[in-house]
């Protein structure tokens, strides 16, 4: 015998009560765990995906949409911007570098992004197999795309117009897979990368097929897209990802873009924070609900211990008569509360991870977000420590009752 | 073995009980008789260190227990005494075996399962070793509490109305077992009771 096996026997003697207490607490802990995993990973993804991008310049419209479309690749473009104007902006003294993006086509719901190598370097992407694109209509695909669509180097596919499955296919000009990227655990995993002129090519072919077959010798190639002449006023791209040259740019550049050009500027950090504060309301409401559950479970544990201590006063007096000190009974009662809350929180943590795992396994879309159930945060240790304190607190009064048991009065009282 | 001198206890300010001095030798068996309210339980609890006296001294095995500290008294109680009460007061959440093992555990002694078997065998309830307390009859439960009281081989066994709740047949059986087990374990035994059925079983009497 020892105190712990005594405590376990007491808990087993009231199975329904014990089950209810553990269940209440574990539900509360599970909700908190899920929120913790979800919001922490979402924050990490957002910071990872916005890393190195200070500003996005694109067509006028919703700044949030501009960011969602061009940084996270989940919304539709706000429109196109003129290449000539984009070029001028990229040469601005406050711009350190600028990466062009041309969107508009997709393959099996995965976006084809016309850009340059700098875009992949932004996320430190490396090739898993194959090589980078050299010519038009050659692509490098992200790891998730390759995995889900079973694309190998050398495979060909026809893109669809638009960013959803329903778009009509560009049957005349198939893309060739030249390389596959290693996973960056970011947005790049879900993209198909190519050069900007490939995007133009698949769209131009209907009307101007005769032009594209000619080899043009460029006298002054564009700094953004070297395959076209600088100052070409007919070409358009979707957006420009900008890195500031110095901190002053953060103040001056957005004002310049919004005021002096036909484009708008949006900051990924600012828009992400705004998005998160909207989501945060829901998270806070759920967290509040979880804390209510935990409070009720603490109350329920307290009431259960308080009541059982009354039933157990003979047990306690007998234990004292057998040599148990007051502090031993105090510790035994504390141990009972702590055992309940620790069991509850450990089961809650397992439940939280398990539910998130089921969610990611069942909901296909969640795979794209890259949220994993098997990530652990140090906050979970805080939850365990917190439940320890909770156990101590809600068994404090019953423990003092046990401590103060008057052997003579109890045993002589019958 | 047990020696008291000028022992008294007062309940509140009015009622005060004086106990005459006692001297009991090792291994002796005594019956403590008296009316309800005559102070049998009080004397027994004083002797057992369950209640602290306000006046007088109680010497057990050469130790004056009135001078022990709270935790010292707890330890002394666990190692020197075995208690049996009118109602068995077994811990119902535990099996018979675990109830018995609580005794050495709380006294800070070694837990010996072979000793549990031995004592249960002496009391004829070995087959109930893994039974739950709720499944025992009254007589069986009282035998388990006797087993618990003698398990640590205490120097003193104090029994408070151990047979009052039992019918004649069980009273006979339980009291015979109690006396013989106490004898086998060489313990000094004091039984506080108003149960007349025990009178002809124990020779030494203390009348309050």
Descriptive account of the structure:
The complex is a heterodimer of chains A (414) and B (208). Chain A has 414 residues and is α+β, with helices and mostly antiparallel strands. Chain A has helices at residues 3-13, 15-50, 63-70, 83-90, 117-122, 143-149, 196-212, 248-260, 268-311, 313-321, 326-362, 364-369, 379-394, 396-403, 407-412, and strands at 55-59, 81-82, 95-107, 110-115, 127-130, 138-141, 156-157, 160-161, 175-181, 191-195, 236-237, 239-244, 263-266. In chain A, the strands form two sheets. In chain A, strands 1, 3, 4, 5, 6, 7, 8, 9, 10, 12 and 13 form an eleven-stranded mixed sheet that branches. Chain A has a two-stranded antiparallel sheet with strand order 2-11. In chain A, helix 1 (3-13) packs across helix 11 (326-362) and helix 9 (268-311) packs parallel to helix 14. The relative contact order of chain A is 0.18. With 208 residues, chain B is of the alpha/beta class. In chain B, strands 1, 2, 3, 5 and 6 form a five-stranded antiparallel sheet that branches. Chain B has a five-stranded parallel sheet with strand order 7-8-9-4-10, sandwiched between helices. In chain B, helix 2 (70-80) crosses helix 3 (96-107). Chain B is globular. The interface between A and B is medium-sized, with 26 and 34 residues.
